[in-house]
Design goal:
single chain, alpha/beta, 8-stranded parallel β-barrel, binds 2-phosphoglycolic acid
């Protein structure tokens, strides 16, 4: 069976109380979640210990991802969170999300450093690209293809196009898995996860409700 990753990217949403409520709601569904999918929750940094405690109690197929990682090792880099610390909580790190590139002006050079750092700490990058022929740093095994116009717009990319681009990315790089992201919902998720070159989804807005995210996992 094809390996699948279902990733919740909470972005800059949720206070501690809101995250607690999400976990309480999600726990109701967690026993029904099939063991063949890896569920990765990517919260804001301060929520990591709480999510880690939840995951320890609940399910062996749940993992933590971070939404970013410092391009530098631990040291005098004010405001940056080192891979060494993140590794205490997370298995994965989203790197190169289009919002990081747009609002934080991250360059390919920054992103390559982040990938190298993550790999040196034993963290698996989930590297985001929004175009077919974007450069993917060496060592990346999981790519999320997220066309900018599809993110948060309610207008997901055409599945035929997604399949063609995912297959191209796999052929041109030593990438093992390609995920699709952009306006994924419980109603459309299977359209993407059933594509032969797609190995899961990266979900933003629809992951903010525990019930909706659980629905996505079940329909994936
Ligand atoms: P969306 O976001 O599901 O809200 O479109 C996806 C993403 O930005 O990762």
């Amino acid at each position: 069976m094809k390996k699948q990753f279902i990733v919740a990217n909470w972005k800059s949403h949720k206070t501690t109380e809101e995250a607690k409520d999400w976990l309480t709601e999600f726990a109701v569904h967690s026993s029904q979640i099939a063991g063949d999918k890896e569920i990765i929750i990517c919260p804001s940094f301060p929520l990591l210990p709480m999510i880690a405690a939840f995951i320890r109690q609940h399910h062996e197929n749940f993992f933590i991802g971070t939404q970013d990682i410092s391009p530098y090792p631990e040291g005098a880099y004010t405001g940056a969170v080192s891979g060494k610390l993140l590794k205490e909580f997370g298995t994965y790190a989203i790197i190169g999300h289009s919002e990081r590139r747009q609002y934080f002006h991250e360059s390919l050079e920054d992103l390559s450093k982040k990938v190298t750092l993550a790999l040196s700490c034993g963290i698996t990058p989930i590297y985001c690209v929004s175009k077919k022929d974007e450069k993917i740093p060496a060592g990346v095994k999981i790519v999320a293809f997220e066309p900018i116009a599809a993110i948060g717009s309610g207008a997901p990319e055409d599945p035929t196009m997604v399949e063609a681009i995912a297959s191209f990315i796999k052929q041109k790089n030593s990438v093992l898995y390609v995920l699709y992201g952009g306006s994924v919902t419980p109603d459309n998720v299977n359209t993407y996860t059933s594509l032969s070159s797609i190995n899961g989804v990266l979900v933003g807005g629809a992951s903010l409700s525990a019930d909706t995210f659980a629905d996505i996992i079940q329909h994936a």
